[in-house]
């Protein structure tokens, strides 16, 4: 019974696969490749070379079925015959001079990505049975900008936002097909980290936006690559970061209230001031004001007498940029004159106390352990030695 079922199944399989092979071999598919926007000839020719001027042939695009070009005894879609799909209106022509030789090839103007697919050229009236030719059209996309007047066909890059320390860069690739890989590279052509790309699709075209934050002055490049068509294109952008550090560095130099503020590498030159908690400028001394490669390294000191919080404020007027760091001087610290115990002495004494304690504990444990051992020994040895004594005493 099972054998029968198996036989039946394999019979079905053979029949089905035989059918598929047959269908495929009936109409071999020729492949034609074209670059998007280029014109292409879809070939179709009777090998008998018979004159087809007064015959009927029809070009159809498959799935979904669309009327591409029909020719019937000298009338066709370009001279009044109705029925052509709007998609192909004005874009398809045939070769009247070639008809005499059985050549029904057509020319498709300015191919679009949407044109890709399978086309059939049918001669329904040919005896003994209709003749069918199948063409697979492959349209290779170009990387390009669409519907953006005046835009160049490469990525566009913009500096969205910038501070002294970083710049946020954006790259837009518009209307590309096939889908490109988009990356940000540094000037050494190394990929730098970037955000998750935003990808959208209109028709067959991809729109990709890629952002990155850079923290160094330099030249950056947005690169779009389409491996399939061996195409790579880029756009560069220069970034000038001329920053102060994220904030001025502030330190208490001396416990008696000498405060120091350091602004490393700022451009344009910042004004650096010490302010008290009422935003009043304190008298201060610039101890360093150096320029290196167009950046200013400034150190400003002030002496405060009162405990409280003080701010070092770095201002770049030209850039409307102001940044500050705060530091607080505590009463205990300022009240602690050098006459107090020096830190190293306190550390030494502290260390000494710890050592003494550890030694003491060790000694106590050792003594305890020793006496315990002694007790145990006495308990073990006690009776035996007494027995010994007894034994010896019993000996005459
Ligand atoms: C049919 O005509 C086209 C256009 O002139 C030509 O490119 C093609 O080679 C012709 N085909 C044959 C088989 O002659």
List the helices and strands and how they pair.
Layout: H1 2-26, E1 29-35, E2 40-42, E3 56-61, E4 66-72, E5 75-76, E6 92-94, E7 106-108, E8 117-123, E9 131-140, E10 156-162, E11 167-176, E12 181-185, E13 198-202, E14 205-214, E15 218-226, E16 231-239, E17 249-254, E18 258-266, E19 271-275, E20 285-292, E21 295-303, E22 308-316, E23 321-329, H2 331-335, H3 343-394
Parallel strand pairs: 1-9
Antiparallel strand pairs: 2-7, 3-4, 3-8, 4-5, 6-7, 8-9, 10-11, 11-14, 12-15, 13-14, 15-16, 17-18, 18-21, 19-22, 20-21, 22-23
Give the integer mean of the pLDDT values.
Answer: 78
H and E string: HEEEEEEEEEEEEEEEEEEEEEEEHH
Distance between the termini: 111 Å
Q: Give helix % range.
A: 10-25%
User: Structural class, please?
Assistant: alpha+beta
Please give the largest β-sheet: 6 strands, mixed
| Total beta strands | 23
Number of domains: 3
What integer value in Å does the Rg equal? 46 Å
Q: Do you know the CATH topology of the largest domain?
A: Immunoglobulin-like
Strand order of the largest sheet: 1-9-8-3-4-5
In percent, how much strand structure appears in the residues?
Answer: 35-45%
The unique ligands bound to this protein are: 2-acetamido-2-deoxy-beta-D-glucopyranose
Question: Helical stretch count?
Answer: 3
Low-confidence stretches: 1-25, 145-152, 333-340, 381-396
What's the CATH class label of the largest domain?
Mainly Beta
Give the overall shape: elongated
Which oligomeric form is depicted? single chain
Proper CATH architecture of the largest domain: Sandwich
CATH homologous superfamily grouping of the largest domain: Immunoglobulins
């Amino acid at each position: 019974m099972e054998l029968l079922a198996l036989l039946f199944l394999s019979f079905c399989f053979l029949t089905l696969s035989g059918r598929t092979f047959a269908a495929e071999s009936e109409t071999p598919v020729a492949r034609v490749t074209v670059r998007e926007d280029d014109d292409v000839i879809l070939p179709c020719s009777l090998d008998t070379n018979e004159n087809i001027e007064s015959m009927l042939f029809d070009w159809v695009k498959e799935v979904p079925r669309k009327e591409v070009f029909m020719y019937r005894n000298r009338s066709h879609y370009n001279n009044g015959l109705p029925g052509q799909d709007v998609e192909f209106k004005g874009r398809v022509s045939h070769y009247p001079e070639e008809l005499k030789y059985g050549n029904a090839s057509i020319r498709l103007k300015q191919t679009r990505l949407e044109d890709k697919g399978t086309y059939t050229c049918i001669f329904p009236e040919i005896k003994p049975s209709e003749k069918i030719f199948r063409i697979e059209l492959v349209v290779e996309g170009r990387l390009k900008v669409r519907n953006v007047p005046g835009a160049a066909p490469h990525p566009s890059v913009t500096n969205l936002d910038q501070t002294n320390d970083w710049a946020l860069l954006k790259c837009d690739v518009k209307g590309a097909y096939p889908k490109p890989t988009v990356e940000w590279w540094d000037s050494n052509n190394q990929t730098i980290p970037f955000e998750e790309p935003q990808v959208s699709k209109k028709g067959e075209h991809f729109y990709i936006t890629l952002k990155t934050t850079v923290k160094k002055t330099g030249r950056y490049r947005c690169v779009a690559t389409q491996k399939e068509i061996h195409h790579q294109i880029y756009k560069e952008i220069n970034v000038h970061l001329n920053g102060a550090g994220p904030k001025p560095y502030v330190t208490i130099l001396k416990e008696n209230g000498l405060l120091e503020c350091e602004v490393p590498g700022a451009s344009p030159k910042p004004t650096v001031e010490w302010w008290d908690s009422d935003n009043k400028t304190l008298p201060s001394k610039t101890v360093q004001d150096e320029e290196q490669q167009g950046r200013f390294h400034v150190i400003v000191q002030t002496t405060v007498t009162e405990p409280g919080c003080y701010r070092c404020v770095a201002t770049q007027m030209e850039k409307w940029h102001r940044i500050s760091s705060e530091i607080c001087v505590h009463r205990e610290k300022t009240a602690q004159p050098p006459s107090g115990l020096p830190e190293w002495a306190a550390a030494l004494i502290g260390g000494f106390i710890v050592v003494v304690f550890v030694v003491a504990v060790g000694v106590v444990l050792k003594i305890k352990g020793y006496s315990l051992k002694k007790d145990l020994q006495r308990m073990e040895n006690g009776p035996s030695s007494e027995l010994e004594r007894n034994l010896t005493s019993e000996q005459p």
